[in-house]
């Protein structure tokens, strides 16, 4: 039976094959977070919808690539113009239909101006001063930050 389904699939127009594949596939959220370092300090946010400190970021919109997404998120949330320099990590979030991408960014211009709807606090931290809740709730992100700051 499977053999015949593949034969039918093969002769379908490409857009129909894509649509069928889309319907049959698992769906994932794609999150993107940035490690932004200035003067040996990392930028962390306390989002209004989270109980702990974390890396700045958000979710990829359907029309965006990684660079557009993280640059938009940082600009919206704290008013900084950043440029993505590279991808540091990609991993599936345990027990959730989500993929997390961590990138490294440099600040091009601007000063921190918080969007109070999304961000409660934003600050740069030395490795020694990183909040404990960040280490506890986001250990994978903390290990990346630690490797960059040391």
Walk me through the structure:
The structure is a single chain. This protein has 150 residues and is α+β, with helices and mostly antiparallel strands. It has one domain (27-149): Nucleoside Triphosphate Pyrophosphohydrolase, CATH 3.90.79. Helices cover 34% and strands 34% of the residues. The chain contains five helices and six strands. Strands 1, 2, 3, 4, 5 and 6 form a six-stranded mixed sheet that branches. It is elongated and about 60 Å long. The mean pLDDT is 92.
Rg: 19 Å
Distance N terminus to C terminus?
57 Å
- Write the element-wise H/E pattern from the N-terminal end onward: HHEEEHEEEHH
Q: How many separate domains make up the residues?
A: 1
Strand portion, in percent? Answer: 25-35%
Characterize the main sheet. Answer: 6 strands, mixed
Based on secondary structure, the structural category is: alpha+beta
Overall pLDDT level: 92
Low-confidence parts lasting 5 or more residues at pLDDT below 50?
Answer: none
* Total helical elements: 5
Question: What is the correct CATH architecture?
Answer: Alpha-Beta Complex
Domain Nudix hydrolase: 25-147
Organism: Candidatus Roizmanbacteria bacterium RIFCSPHIGHO2_01_FULL_39_8
Transmembrane segments: 16-37
Protein name: Nudix hydrolase domain-containing protein
């Amino acid at each position: 039976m499977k053999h015949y389904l593949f034969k039918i699939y093969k002769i379908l127009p490409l857009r129909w094959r894509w649509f069928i594949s889309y319907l049959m596939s698992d769906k994932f959220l794609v999150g993107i977070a940035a490690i932004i370092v200035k003067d040996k300090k990392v930028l962390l946010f306390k989002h209004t919808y989270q109980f702990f400190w974390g890396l700045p970021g958000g979710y990829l919109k359907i029309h965006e690539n990684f660079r557009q997404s993280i640059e938009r998120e940082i600009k919206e949330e704290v008013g900084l113009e950043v440029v993505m320099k590279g991808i540091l990590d990609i991993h599936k979030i345990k027990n959730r239909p989500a993929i997390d991408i961590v990138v490294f960014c440099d600040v091009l211009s601007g000063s921190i101006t918080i969007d109070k709807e999304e961000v409660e606090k934003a600050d740069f931290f030395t490795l020694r001063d990183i909040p404990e809740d960040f280490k506890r709730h986001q250990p994978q992100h903390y290990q990346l930050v630690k490797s960059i700051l040391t």
